Amino acid sequence: MPNKLSNYINGQFVDSHGSETFDIHNPATNKLIGLTPLGTTTDVDQAVAAAKEAFQTWRNTPAIDRVQPLFKLKALLDEHAKEIAELIVKEHGKTLKEAMGDILRGIQMVEVATGMPSLMMGENLTNIAAGIDASTERRPIGVFAGITPFNFPAMVPFWFWPFAVASGNTYVLKPSERVPLTQMRIFELISQCGFPKGVINMIHGGKDVVNGLCDHADVEGVNFVGSTPIAKHVYTRSTASGKRVQALGGAKNFMVLLPDAVMDQSIKAMVDSCYGCAGERCLAGSILVGVGDAYDKMKELVLKEMENIVVGNGLDSKTTLGPVISKAAQERITSDIATAVSEGAELLIDGRNTKVSGHEEGYFMGPTVLDKINPGTLMATKEIFGPVIGLMQVKTLDDAIEMLNGSEFANTTSLFTTNGGAARKFINQVIPSMVGINIGVPAPMAFFSFGGSKDSFFGDIKVHGNSSVEFFTEKHTSMIRWYEKGIDSSVSSIWGTK
Ligand code: NAD
């Protein structure tokens, strides 16, 4: 029986107060590989108290000193990237190549956060009135908490805490209870980097820990990434206790193909978007929309691309499609496919009941292609979060834009075309706030802002890049005048004598 994992509080690995545990299974084998303690509000109190205490000194530590541990962490993450990637495959299931992407994107966040001494500089102006200067500084705020999902065990926590900590705040992370092993290893590295005690903490748990963080009077702000219902819950509960919150939710991403697109490359990018990470990506393509004549070619090439997909254990170098996260996810996706068929979709390729030799217990799903998706049906509206593609035909680009703008989600969308005018119109008119032109997974990099709109995002300020500086700091403006003895300070200005 594997050991129960520890929390990391005040610079030490300590036991959780939770007596219940969550079983972590390797999705490729169904083998039990760890036990996540389901922590309690006592764990939350301990971690937040440590972070609050550390903030008193950390907030006044020079920014250039605050980023030094991040430089060390970057070097350690580079050194251990392959080992961490293997851990990601073991607990999540994605392929080793995808897992390397997960960790490398995380490292980029650390790199960008080391620029905080420049990023958080303020504004000033001398003589805003005669003899008076004004200066706006960005101040850290206090303790922040992060709650993250299962699908990117390494990257998503890095969207937040390096920026929070570099800008002078302290942090409590609660990773997904389904994939905590990656963060356990990363926190072993963090513990070697020289962060003062309490600056960065991690507690394991489920909804009790989440709700405890949302309610805690000493937590100033919350970062959340996960499904839309929980994003809404965390946003509502945390803002009710006066916190600043950014909560990223689910998605339903439409990819549109025009007849003038470079077909082979476009279809490859679209299919990779749908099946990469077994479709368990908030930026995964879900519905492929062929405009006019593009539809027939799209259908033909999508079916051809299916021949290249190899389902298997992510550690096998030939595998291009790993298992989904859990038996429950496998059953949910299987049931969604059945509903789609009952609502009129035509099943072109059925990935249900896919078995991988030697891995009979794994949660594998082969690629599924459903044609003739009708607007308003489950397949057209619900986030499937599995390796399932829906095909649709519309008459014009305007029809495609109108349809995708009607979705309750608005995370990302892509257009495939060689027509600049069509691309410009698409960018201008679509609601999803991350847009790809001939890009299947338009994920903004660490130095840009990330996040969708509508039910894919709750909050006002997006994630990473310059937005993170906005989120993690408060602007303070000082107006300053110095009197000089013996000199009349009521000097004249263009507005007259003051
Ligand atoms: P999830 O909502 O089940 O879990 C996310 C976090 O919420 C976890 O840490 C979990 O412990 C906690 N949680 C779960 N149920 C809770 C409850 N009832 N009360 C309080 N806390 C609870 O999401 P998931 O399945 O881990 O992740 C997949 C989802 O995340 C998908 O919907 C995906 O689109 C979304 N996601 C979105 C983005 C984005 O950028 N918008 C990025 C990654 C993932």
Report what the structure shows.
- With 498 residues, the chain is α/β, with parallel strands linked by helices.
- The protein folds into 2 domains: 7-249 and 456-478, Aldehyde Dehydrogenase, Chain A, domain 1; 253-437, Aldehyde Dehydrogenase, Chain A, domain 2 (3-Layer(aba) Sandwich).
- 37% of the residues lie in helices and 23% in strands.
- It has a 7-stranded mixed beta sheet with strand order 14-15-16-13-12-18-19, with helices on both faces. A 6-stranded mixed beta sheet has the order 9-8-7-10-11-21.
- The longest helix is centred in the first third of the chain and has 25 residues, at 68-92.
- The model has no long low-confidence stretch (mean pLDDT 96).
- Nicotinamide-adenine-dinucleotide is lined by residues 147-151, 156, 174, 176-177, 206-207, 210, 225-227, 230, 233, 248-251, 282, 383, 385, 411, 452, 456.
Structure in a nutshell:
The chain is of the alpha/beta class and 498 residues long. It is built from 17 helices and 24 strands.
Layout: helices, strands, pairs:
Layout: E1 7-9, E2 12-14, E3 21-25, E4 32-37, H1 41-58, H2 63-66, H3 68-92, H4 96-113, H5 116-119, E5 123-129, E6 132-140, E7 143-147, H6 155-158, H7 161-166, E8 170-174, H8 180-190, E9 200-202, H9 207-215, E10 219-225, H10 228-240, E11 244-248, E12 253-257, H11 263-275, E13 285-291, H12 294-306, H13 327-342, E14 346-349, E15 368-371, H14 378-381, E16 388-394, H15 397-405, E17 409-410, E18 412-416, H16 420-429, E19 434-437, E20 453-454, E21 457-458, H17 466-472, E22 473-481, E23 492-493, E24 496-497
Parallel strand pairs: 7-8, 7-10, 8-9, 10-11, 12-13, 12-18, 13-16, 15-16, 18-19
Antiparallel strand pairs: 1-2, 3-4, 5-6, 6-22, 11-21, 14-15, 17-20, 23-24
The chain binds nicotinamide-adenine-dinucleotide.
